[in-house]
Amino acid sequence: MGLVALALARDLLRKPWQLLLTILSITAGVTVVVGVDIANESALAEFRRAGDITAGQATHRLTGTTAGIPESLYRSVRVDAGIRLAAPVISAEVAMAGEPGQWTLIGVDPLSDFRLRGYRFGNGAGEESSTNAANQAWPLFVAAGLERESGDELTLESAGRRQSFNIAGELVVPGGDPGKLLVTDISWAQDFLAMQGRISHIDLRLSPDEAQRLQEMLPPEVRLIHLGVYDGAREDMSRAFRINLTALSLLALVVAMFLVYSAVSFQVARRRPLLGLLGALGVTPTGVAMLLLWELVVTGLLGTMLGIALGVFLAQYLTALVGGTIDALYHALAEPPPRLGGPTMVRALLVGVLATILSGLVPVLQASRESAVSLIRGSGESLGMGQHAGKLLPVSVVLCLPATLLLIWPGDSLVLPFAGLFLLICALSLLGPWLLRQAGNWSARHGGAGLVPKMALGNASRHLDRTGVAVVALAVAVSATLGVELMIRSFRHSVGDWLEHYLRADIYLAAEDAGDSALSENYIAALAAIPGVAQVAAGRRSTIATTSGPLTVFALDTPAEGFAGFRVIRQLEGNLRARFHEDGELLVTEPLARRLRLEPGDSITLPTDRGPRPFTVAAIYRDYSSDRGLVTMDWRTWRRHYDDHRRKSAALYLDAGVDTGDVMAKARASPGAPDALFLRANRELREASLAVFDQTFRITAVLRWLAVIVAVTGIVSALMALLLARRREFSMLTAIGFSRAQVGGLLLAEAGIAGLVAGLVAVPLGMLLSLALIRVINVRSFGWTMDILVDWELAAQSVLLALFAALVAALYPAWRMRPAEALEGLRDE
Amino acid sequence: MALRGVSRAYREGETQRDVLRGVDLEAAAGEFIAIGGPSGSGKSTLLHLAAGLDVPDAGTIVVGGSDIGSLTAARRTLFRRRQVGMVFQFFNLVPTLTVAENLRLPLALNGLPVDADRIDGLLDTFGLADHRRDYPATLSGGEQQRVAVLRAAIHEPALILADEPTGNLDRERGDGVIDLLRTLAGRGTCVLMVTHSRHAAGAADRRLRLDSGRLTPWDW
Amino acid sequence: MNRRGGFPLRGALLAAGAALLVMLAASWIMRPGGTGDVDAESSESPAFGDLVAFLAEPPEKGFAEVRPGQPIRFPRDHGAHPEFRQEWWYFTGQLHAANGRRFGYQLTFFRFAAGSMPEAPRSAWAADQSWMAHLAITDVSGGRFLRDEDFARGTLELAGATGEPFDVWVNGWSVRALPEVPGCAGCFRATLAASGEGMELALELDASHPPVLQGEAGYSVKSADGRVASYYYSMPGMATRGSLRLDGELHAVEGETWMDREWSSAVLSPGQSGWDWFSLNLDNGYKLMIFRVREDGSPDFLSASLLDPEGRQLGADSAGIILEPVDYWTSGETGIRYPMAWEISGVAPEGPWSLELGAVIPEQEMALAFRYYEGLVDVAGQWGSDPVGGWGYLELTGYSIP
Prior knowledge:
The complex is a heterotrimer.
Chain A: H1 2-14, H2 16-55, E1 60-63, E2 69-70, H3 72-80, E3 86-96, E4 102-108, H4 110-113, E5 120-122, E6 139-143, E7 153-158, E8 161-172, E9 181-185, H5 186-192, E10 198-199, E11 201-204, H6 208-216, E12 223-226, H7 227-270, H8 272-281, H9 285-330, H10 342-369, H11 372-377, H12 389-408, H13 415-429, H14 431-446, H15 451-462, H16 464-502, E13 507-511, H17 521-529, E14 533-546, E15 549-556, H18 560-563, E16 567-571, H19 576-581, E17 586-589, H20 590-596, E18 603-608, E19 611-622, E20 630-634, H21 635-641, E21 649-654, H22 660-669, E22 677-681, H23 682-696, H24 698-725, H25 727-736, H26 740-782, H27 792-816, H28 819-827
Parallel strand pairs in A: 4-9, 6-8, 15-20, 17-19
Antiparallel strand pairs in A: 1-11, 1-12, 2-10, 3-4, 3-7, 3-11, 5-8, 6-9, 7-8, 13-21, 13-22, 14-15, 14-21, 16-19, 17-20, 18-19
Chain B: E1 2-12, E2 15-26, E3 32-36, H1 43-51, E4 58-63, E5 66-67, H2 73-83, E6 84-87, H3 99-110, H4 116-125, H5 141-153, E7 159-163, H6 171-186, E8 190-194, H7 198-201, E9 206-211, E10 214-217
Parallel strand pairs in B: 3-8, 3-9, 6-7, 7-8
Antiparallel strand pairs in B: 1-2, 1-4, 4-5, 9-10
Helix pairs in contact in B: 3-5, 5-6
Chain C: H1 7-29, H2 51-55, E1 86-97, E2 102-113, E3 129-139, E4 144-153, E5 159-162, E6 167-170, E7 173-177, E8 188-196, E9 199-207, E10 212-213, E11 219-221, E12 229-246, E13 249-264, E14 272-282, E15 287-295, E16 301-307, E17 313-314, E18 322-330, E19 337-348, E20 351-359, E21 365-367, E22 371-383, E23 386-396
Antiparallel strand pairs in C: 1-2, 1-13, 2-3, 3-4, 5-6, 6-7, 7-8, 8-9, 9-12, 10-12, 11-12, 12-13, 14-15, 14-23, 15-16, 16-17, 18-19, 19-20, 20-22, 21-22, 22-23
């Protein structure tokens, strides 16, 4: 068989450009998949690493609600309960004078901390320093990246307090870069943050028995939580986002697969005579198939390896985007460096090679099954789309059924609806070639506007194998673009609508000092006293640690006008306002309701400063500010259950006709104003929020364009193949007297028709896509529902996009159709 | 080789074309048989059936004692590989293998030992030694056909089937090919040649004519 | 058209090779955990340096000085003396299980005073004392040695030592006197509890003999010129009962414990490299304590005390005692070479004595934040004219890698 393989291989290499096109098709798809995979993995790794750095080897945490836990608890844990792996921590967000952003200051007891976190403190000269180094006043250990020397001073600020620290040495954490972490001794941290008597939490590493024992001796307001939950919560936060990205990247791969199919079936067609000869000489069909499949494997490997290399480059760009998006949404990430891991490479290799084999399987199997006779004769078209055109419609319709089923299958899975979506795309895109065939038949029967259009239509229809694939690829890419864009526009519209509805006040302010800053009661009184201010509604947003992850609680005293801003979706009967204000019941946002499976009337237990307490859910409302969801309660309810009554934000309702700017200036100047005050008028706030929205969807725009580029690349390949396959025909036309421009124009017309058909199919497909995305995928990913927007202008643009893309793709092949080529076509005979 | 009552028809769209109707043919080892007839008369079909490339609708084809028409496609392929050598009008040689490699191909396929000297000897004898390392595209038509015949015979098959082997060649070159075929027949191979050239047919032991699906003697 | 074979094949192979190289290069550059990551070894001891180097530093200002003639009173002085720089409570003992298994154990509590700070934080976590505890168990039959350590700062009652009642603890490890009237000043019955890596101790110690003051009424000098001294007393012969858990197996044990107590503000003078300390319990009832401080370039300083079977202190002629190391063991972990078998001889009122002692198993090194050797030893030899046997503990400090 070796000689046969050699013959086939040399044959393949005689037309290196065709081989290259096949390879590049798969490369294009794999590049996008790998790029996204790396970006996702890097983001995930960053999440885990960030978690590991702060939690170290701890498995549990003793934590309170809003004000930490009593420091005496540590003695109970260590001495009375005899638990060995426990470390007390005081932590807070602080600002550093002269540097932007927030930093995390943690105060630890090095004597107990080393077992859990393994932080090491260098004395700057690269040697280990003993705790004697901490004998200097206000010691601070910082990451090397900060580029400060031991002995330098550093001023930190938190909640209005300032303190100058002395840099005692370098902080080295296992597992990488400490990032924005600052470490000091717990005693100094307690002094600086004025937390005498209390600490933030105790980190522990516990066996299940110890955990049980500890649980029994805790005071009611202290909770023992399992840290694994937090890691899970962090990963969960971005999981939906990452799945959506992966789905988009797979789309590019699917498009690439279409193109490989096209390239391979052309190659097989071109090699028919050789394959037939080999059959005549006695090579079994199985033997031929095996050899061709091996060629596919090698091609797939080459294309995949190149795709991996290119994907790595793409990943640099994508990772920054993904990281930026996740940071904007979840505020959790330093910029993750892109890392290519083993699993990504293995996945890419498997996916790339499998995709190549799958795409090429059909033409290869067909070629091997045909008898040697017809192969030698080269009779018949390739038994692809052309011959089975009649089956396109029924196949398409039949596939729609399971696709729809998968989409509407109840449950929480994201994989099922995505699978259904892909199936739907495949099913409906088959209508494109069907349409083309119908158009061809129609034009054959009815003559028409002219010879050239009729020829073009007829040709496009006749060579459905080539044109059909191009139509499908383009339809898929354009419909995906349209569908996602429609979804985003609907989303944006809903968000804008929500903002307008929800932001009822005229001015919003919040304390922005680093750390746990608040608006003092004096300041709030001063605000109310400003002329023109009708009402001040103040409140706070707190993150409470629960056994199932962090929970955001929003407590506010809102006037009737503000209450009307809640877009309630489902509620209990009766006076909702009374339930909220007087009965202490809660409002819960959609994402939270979905995550915790809450309905109005359900009870939810929240940790409070009086111990865990049950609350009733009065209503579910629509809110896009967080995809983890939040709980809203009346300020009085908060006061009853929690000790920290400081308010962090306020909204001002002004009388009619009052100048907003004037009031804002007075607010800034009023006594008691925090140094850093967030102050925005209603409209500014709305615009800023929408800007964040746009930023987060930037990455999907990139991916969509990538899919279109992949499609266009493949169409060039398909059209080149078409050109070569029909060389005889074109040369005959040239011989008859068609000028080169005319033949080129014919090709352009064919491509244009294909593009137009693709566009027409893409519109309904894209709309169905956006429907699926809005109704199923977004709801399951993030819990948000939104209104569906139909943008006809966008639909029309998509048709034009498809047409344009096809024409652009045809330019090169049309230009290649030179007289010399034509003659060569004749010479072959 | 014996064909008994072999019929084969093709369906094209709505119509059915009966290419062979109850054809009988007996050919002994070492016989050189020429088959002529108007074009499109199914001469190639006859060869394809004899080679096991196709299966008759009716009748039996017995070669070396077994009915190849009843074999599975895989078995037929194996039969063809070992017992048949084929020469076509054009596209005989694998364009991506050198002349020497083309000659080696049937031996390699059948797992027969490759005697490089024997191949060189054959090329030498027929004046093709210089082209041993060349690709077929660089040879003239006649040279290509001669290599094709050598390739068809190199694995000593029972049957050599030649479909218009001289169709593309001028008389002189064509004679070279015919001589080769005669020599092979002389060595005991049964040679079946389809041709429309009276001159080429003249070298055969027996001449037959395929007309309207039946085989009749070819008047000379 | 290619005429000669090979070229397109080669070109293809080159292209494939190039693609492979690019891919491999990319994947190496971008491998996870690339450059600059630090190994995580978070359960290693913090490297506070060698004990001896730390302790040989000249006394800092602000600590009390050890002076002769200061009365030591009990139970008051069982507790901590924070005005002195360092202090320890040393419990070593031998335990037997019912099935004949034999164990040695050591539980030590250390207190160190921190240097003075110019400014102290306003926080209950501010501490001017830090505490450390060591736990070790020698499993003689199993040939194993387990050790562990713990640390605490001296605030918020995380660690400390009191005299009345006698209580010493570091986090969860403790020795606490039971609430009952002792039979003598300084006597006590206490529970000892400690659990560490793979081991757990729960013992009851019965100190029924009064403490033995070493040196001159507790003033124990450590060098010939008398410049370095500590307050030092011992309580040997405490009957011990309780349980020991080793790797999940629980043993009921019985035996004897020796407690050593010292506090001072300097332990070695410059030039002194370390010490060897022996506590020997002979089966004829005599108890011998010997320590020798090794000095470079000067004769070693030796001090000893002898107790008769009734617990009376007899004068021990330090000058007549000869210590001879006869066998060494090199630690695979630290590379330090320890003499773990000795021949010692001296003269007692009953006559001359000579003893051979050796570690029951060689691996009894405390390779923790501080490194020293503390091991159970077997004793055999002659006491006067009679053969004698016994057990004891051997402590070696200040040995370094040869």
